[in-house]
Design a protein that fits this description.
Helices cover 56% and strands 19% of the residues. By secondary structure, the protein is an alpha+beta fold. A hairpin with a 4-residue loop joins β2 and β3.
């Protein structure tokens, strides 16, 4: 029987899978942009590029978290949502961009708790979004005690589902 994978191994496996998908998607995006430009439709190319950039804002915010385990888990979460074409917005306390915050707060067991929480939330989100017209996810990260990760699924302005994780020192 193979050994159980560590959290770091699971995250690496997820990241490699997402990287392969993103590489394929980016190549397709470049081809679409080149096609628009070859047809003399620069306005369409710019519009397409803006649309793509807007989808990366959540990843950019999460990328500012210096705690690598947390950043990797949340990036996996966001990319998983994007694969399912579910837009996501991130609201994050600025304290979470500070290495001192993580040095004081972080405990190794938090990684497994956050990983399990995001995997469970993805399963629930994919089930709950069926039949929604405008599914949208809001990920809220609070850096004060207790650390709070709050995920909401909305359909337009209506909240459909929510889940939160509290971690205390």
């Amino acid at each position: 029987m193979p050994d159980k994978l560590s959290l770091e191994q699971l995250l690496l496996k997820d990241q490699l899978s997402h990287y392969r998908l993103q590489r394929h998607d980016f190549l397709n995006h470049w081809q679409v942009i080149m096609g628009y430009l070859q047809l003399g439709k620069a306005d369409k190319a710019l519009s397409y590029m803006r649309e793509g950039i807007n989808g990366l804002e959540a990843e950019q915010i999460i990328g500012q978290i210096p705690q690598e385990i947390v950043a990797a888990i949340l990036l996996n979460f966001i990319i998983s949502l994007r694969k399912e074409e579910i837009p996501v917005e991130v609201e994050m306390d600025t304290a979470m961009k500070d290495e001192n915050f993580w040095e004081e707060f972080w405990q190794k067991e938090y990684g497994q708790a956050i990983y399990g929480y995001t995997k469970e939330s993805l399963t629930d989100l994919f089930e709950q979004r069926k039949g929604l017209k405008e599914p949208y996810v809001l990920l809220q990260l609070q850096g004060q005690e207790p650390f709070l990760c709050h995920i909401k699924l909305e359909d337009g302005e209506r909240m459909v589902w929510e889940n939160h994780l509290e971690l205390n020192r």
